[in-house]
Amino acid sequence: MANNPTNQRIIQLQQGWDEEIKVKAIDVLEDMLNGGLKSGKANMFAPKEYVNIYTVCYDMCTQRSPYNWSRELYNRHGETIEQYLTSTVLPALREKTGQGGTILLTELQARWTNHQIMNKWLKKFFTYLDRYYVKHHSLPTLSQAGLKHFRTHIYDEMKSDTTAAILALIDEERDGEIIDKTLIKSSVELYESMGMGSLDAYAADLEAPLLDSTRAYYVKKRQEWIETDSTPDYLIKAERALNEERNRVGDYLNSASEVKLLRVCEEEILEKVESVLLEKEGSGCRVLLANDKSEDLQRMFRLFSRLENGLNPIATIVEQFISAMGLECIDKRKARLDGGEKDKNDDPKFVRSLLSLHDKYLGVIKSDFSGHSLFQKALKDAFVEIMNKNVGQFTNAELMSTFCDRVLKSNEKLNDAEVEENLDRVVQLFSYLTDKDLFAEIYRNQLAKRLLNQRSSSDDSEKIMIAKLKMQCGTQFTAKMEGMLGDLAVGSDQRSEFESKMKQHKSKLDFSAQVLTNGFWPTYKSPEVALVPEMTQCMDVFKTWHDEKHAKRKISWVFSLGNATVRGVFGKKSYDLQVTTLQAVALHALNEGQSLSFVELSEKLNLEETIMKPLMHSLSCGKYRVLTKSPASNKINNTDTFAANPKFSCNMRKIRIPMASLDTNHSPKKLEDNRLLAIEAAIVRIMKARKTLQHQQLVAEVLSQLAFFKPNPRVIKKCIETLIDREYLERNADSSQMYNYLA
Length: 743
Hints:
It is elongated and about 150 Å long. Helix content is about 65%, strand content about 5%. A 3-stranded mixed β-sheet has the order 1-2-6. The chain is mainly alpha-helical and about 750 residues long. It has 28 helices and 9 strands.
């Protein structure tokens, strides 16, 4: 049924307020709150009571002017809350001040809960005000108005005391005491509510003092810990403190405080003492590395990775430490050489020590420092220094290559998996060498010897190593090595074809030849030795066959690389002597009891003294002395006389008689010439692209392009001068430091 305004009873302001609203609602509500009502109680007012009060408020707000009391009721709503807060709540809180933080905060929590209940019920009673009057006059809602009153009359008056109480309890918890976390959490929620939808009040009134208090607390703790604790113990406490602060935020603070709170802790307990902790005598970073304290290093990495640039000092120490350990290995090698040990290009003990060192600290970087790029760079820089510091006559590049030679010959007695693992480790060290081209030159020579002398344990292993080098340095780096393997693969097919051809010729020798592509293989000495007629005949057959098959190819013989098996009869026993072609020819010259002087033998074989001496030394002074020389000694002289050794005896039937190589592992002059060509090519490439360039820029770009060696800037300058003389470049007319490219 519709209301009839003409018959509706007019409610006067005082009548409605004093007789209905105040007596039946506000006074009752205040009595309930003062009586200790818990917020969990749902029905403070019976439905009928609530409806009657609501109806009175509604009627007073819907009466026609001048009896519309909306404005008056809105004001009295605020006055009611204000009166209750100032006369009841504030005195109760002030009474608890000074009795202890927990008592004050407990009272505050109770009063805040009561205020929320009061605010809720008053909003229910005066709902019509919120719906129309507040909305039309753009006033704060009843809930907002209630909060503002609480903020003005309670929060602003008590916040300094309550903040101090909260901070005191937090410090107690930091010192290991048990506190009421729920109480602090509810207090923090009050601070959050006072922001009216923002965290401004929380940030200004609680968070800022909390950060200051935290800083002061950890300044004191830092001073205590740094004086009494070792670095690992200090970091254990620091990590525990940081975890506790993070948990503290989760337990009762606003999540927005976590970053700021942890930052304060990090500054005080980590950043300000980082250098002291890292360098601490007896327990600093170097000591942890030396004693393999993995857990402590991991903790150190975790903590200092929180700081901007916090890992840089640790990475520097790690680099210095690894460099020092590497230099120890080098010093041990130097001490051995100084102690009289013969300097050889084969020092597996030294190479293994470097491999072990690298394996160890590569593992440390991965496990303890999470493979962080800073520490990978530290490892790289340390090993670049170590690997390019040479001791003795032979460079580290040569020692590394010879170690690979041992592995690939199976001198180390390894299975296939172990061979590949060793090659992997060597290539990792190889990547730190500055003179990669030197390693390549030596490795190529040793590869050639393995392939030609059939000393390689596995073709697959050879291919694997070349593939690893190719991945590290590119196709250009390994092109010749791949060509060498290709020659042997093709050569095996050609040998089969030639063997069938040889069967048509009645020869006493089992002859075969290996064709090598001149550009792939190292340059070898090729003495024109006087061969036995049977050998010459076989060579002629092969040349004829080869010329028919490859008319445009020219072949030249390299006798120093050939090998032969010679049947030798000493007394009643015969032996198969595995020798080089030169050794075989020398043995043939002394066959059937002949005795020749050094000079006579040299003339008969058509060989120079420099070749004859190592040749005759291998046959008469080595492990298997199939020849005798007079006078007897371990040195070959031009006056010596040689003959077969009738007393030669050996337990083995097949005997390999090694001979010293006539060729060095590499030619320094050839390497230097190749480098000059590479520098000149790089200069021309750069200038062709840039046309004009300043001297320092050109030098810098040349250095960046040359990956296989690091030339001296003076050498680059010399190459530039050479190219100017050859009219590839010219100096700029306006500046002597500028160069122009001449097309």
